[in-house]
Amino acid sequence: MRAAFLTGIGKIELGERPEPKLATPCDVLLEVAAVGVCGSDLHYYRAGGIGAQVVSFPWVIGHECVAKILEVGTEVQHLKVGQLVALDPLIACGQCDQCRMGREHTCRDQVFLGCPGQLPGALSEYLVMPAKCCYTLPDSMNLAQAVMIEPFSICLYAQRMARAQRGAKIAILGSGPIGLCVLLALRAEGECTVYATDLIQERLEVARRCGAAWVGNPRQEDVVASLGKLELLGMDFVFECAGQQETLDQGVELLKPGGTLLMVGIPKGSRISFNFDLLRRKELRLENVRRQNQCVAPAIELIARGAVNVEQLVTHHFPLAETQKAFELAAGYRDGVIKAAIHISQPS
Known about the structure:
It is built from 11 helices and 19 strands. It is of the alpha/beta class. It has 2 domains: 2-147 and 310-343, Alpha-Beta Complex (Quinone Oxidoreductase, Chain A, domain 1), CATH 3.90.180.10; 152-288, Rossmann fold, CATH 3.40.50. Strands 3, 6, 7, 10, 11, 18 and 19 form a 7-stranded mixed β-sheet that branches.
């Protein structure tokens, strides 16, 4: 079967790999329909790794996946051949202390789709996954909506972690696909005022359409000073969605005493730093956000009933043969790209 292999830094080539087979009675065989290009995929593409997760080339990446079921294992009861499904790309062991606590996203023995050294990714024609990772989609949902389920579910989890009260003042730093999905989740599930920043003007226009009360570009103004004038007491919550030292610093400055910084973005390196004097004097809370802990199903429900418009974030579409072009576009932030989707098959 055809697959897109990451063969070096900034280089993706189309090649062949064996077709997967069902390994257990609880598996399903999938025909991949479409895959979104994620920010973590771009880390692998640009730098060959994220922290300790280093790619051994060649490697198939991709995990924001929608697919059609071709075959089900003998013990699979809730799925049928022909159904379209979205994937939770995390396979948890289900037995460790974290899984027993309802924290499958921090499972001690997990494997993740497309993660180096764990499970080859979704940028291929066929895929085998456990049935428990597959979530059926309504007939009314299109591929652009479906391919956004995985990133939106992460942001829905981040929004629920914040537990923001009605009237909360919130800043989102970084208005890429993740920042915009956080914005949509906040606007759908709570009455709050949200401010958004980004370095790319087109993304700020989308943030405004998604419900941001104010948008600002750090290249054009001092966003900390501007937001300080709008919210004299500071922010209740800041969602850092860029994975940059500058935005982490801005988040600490923007928060009111007792506020919470939710770190959703993934930094390039393994270490970041904080102004500890400011962090301590304000008694700020730091929250890491990892994956989509039990939020795939509610994400599908919100998208299906039209509570959030994630389809508008899918700005570019490519066939599998043009995966290199898709990654070049997304990595270069060109042509107003927010989310690039790679179409592998067209489910009937």
